[in-house]
Amino acid sequence: MFHTSLCGLLGIRYPIIQGALGGHTRPVSDAKLVSAVSDAGGLGILSTWNLSDKAILKEIERVRKLTDRPFGVNIAAIHSSYDFTKRAKLLAEAGVKIVTTGRGDPDIPAISLLKDHGIIVLPVVGSIDQAINMEKKGADAVIASGCEGGGHVGVVSTLTLVPQVVDVVDIPVIAAGGIGDARGFVAALALGACGVQMGTRFILSKESIAPFELKQKLLKASSEDTVVTTMRTGWPTRVLRSKFTSEWEELKKRGASKEELKRFRSVMLRRIKEDIEEDTIGAGQVCGMLNELKSSKEIIEEIIEGAISIVSKLQELRSGDI
Known about the structure:
The chain is of the alpha/beta class. The chain is about 45% helix and about 15% strand.
């Protein structure tokens, strides 16, 4: 059940994608998590955040040794420390079949290069204009991510963004942001999406390599414990509130210079490496719904089973049996 156009496009059993999960020191979505999600019937996405070309190729090989199911690799289009087109070429030469791009606006040559190698391209978009632009550039589908999500965010909510994107593009739309259980999954389909992408839900999976301390903080957090800040990357990013985010906002309120903010960011990153409990982990508002670590298989199966039950109840409501 729930075999949508996304399943056919990606060759997966369930229309569920694990969002690319970057980190300050190393990605959370490494080969272990990616392969677990893919083996469970979804699509695991390997993050390349802060990884060298050599490390990326090594992780891709690790995934292939762990699973024979489809998986994807993410390129963060807003990153300035590497050439996007060069990295796209690296993935093409490595035989990667599916690529997601982080928020940003990948240039036309990069998408063309990926498409020329037969790669399925799924950009993450936060606005209607971005979605239209990505379709024009040849994207196979778009991931419409609302501001409830963790990581880089726009200003429009998932509930508002997804149906508007569905109405203006002719390619499949995947919903992201604020989705963590069967209710969100069914709601996304009702909005016209052909599937969902979840990030925060998979941070709290047993296969996730997120540090134990961070997982515990996330499990205890409420939706109000997340905040959108430019502290981490210079781009609006939803993270779990910390003393660093509070200090950053205070600096901005008093009119700190760009140099002061740059120094603060450098100090923050250094302290995080020394004490992981101080990390400002990217997390969506859905964290307030999550209170238990589960395997990727359990997460996906519970969503599908729960969705079947919800749809059944909706059908009963329609027939007047409730």
